[in-house]
Recover the amino acids of this structure.
């Protein structure tokens, strides 16, 4: 069964510094899709970044970037120049590949990130 | 604003009752997904529809059912409600099943 593990329940970072959130996953698929979602106190789920497993280049979105290590089944999120508005719970999520052709998202347990002024 | 709308935002009801949650996907999105977020279970996939047809089922109880209508909006029906059904229910939509999903604001269900 596919699983997603986020081993850091809580993290904190000073404003303007860089922080990395960890995520590992387990799958027997060769093609799949990985995501990071952010859930601020408003509880809205916001897509942060997307990575396709067949692409070797790490995805980036402004201050957010990933370190995708396919062999290690690792997908960490780096937030640069942290801002107070980055305070949220971050979820790593995974969609299995084309063999099932569903969009079932499997989520990790989440990491609560607090950005301190 | 993700473009996905959900109604109602909050719902308070008693055990044994039935409720209907409604979702309108983003314009152009054919896939609709329902997820449940509770404190003890985290975020769990419930069910997916694609262009009106059920595509995948997750940990959805038999007391729960859903459908997607010709205009692509979807409804999640929860019946014989129990205290443990209290949770945040999200609807999400995507253009196709393997594209990124955009989430609605959620419906907070409280069963008393």
């Amino acid at each position: 069964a596919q699983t997603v593990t986020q081993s850091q329940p809580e993290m904190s970072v000073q404003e303007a510094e860089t922080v990395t959130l960890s995520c590992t996953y387990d799958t027997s698929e060769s093609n799949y899709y990985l995501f990071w979602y952010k859930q601020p106190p408003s509880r809205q789920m916001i897509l942060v970044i997307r990575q396709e497993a067949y692409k070797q280049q790490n995805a980036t979105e402004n201050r957010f970037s990933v370190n995708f290590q396919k062999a290690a089944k690792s997908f960490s999120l780096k937030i640069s120049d942290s801002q107070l508005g980055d305070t949220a719970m971050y979820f790593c999520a995974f969609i299995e590949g084309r063999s099932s052709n569903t969009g079932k998202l499997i989520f990790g347990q989440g990491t609560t990130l607090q950005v301190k002024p | 604003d993700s473009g996905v709308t959900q109604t109602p935002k909050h719902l308070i009801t008693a055990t044994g009752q039935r409720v209907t949650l409604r979702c309108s996907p983003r314009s152009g999105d054919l896939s609709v997904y329902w997820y449940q977020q509770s404190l003890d279970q985290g975020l769990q996939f419930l069910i997916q529809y694609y262009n009106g047809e059920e595509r995948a089922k997750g940990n959805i109880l038999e007391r729960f059912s859903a459908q997607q209508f010709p205009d692509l909006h979807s409804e999640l029906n929860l019946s014989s409600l129990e205290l443990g059904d209290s949770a945040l229910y999200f609807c999400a939509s995507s253009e196709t099943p393997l594209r990124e999903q955009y989430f609605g604001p959620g419906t907070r269900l409280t069963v008393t």
About this structure: The two ends of chain A are 41 Å apart (CA to CA). The CA atoms of residues 7 and 24 of chain A lie 8 Å apart. The interface with chain B takes residues 33, 35, 37, 43-47, 50, 91, 95, 97-98, 100-107, 109-110 of chain A (CB under 8 Å).
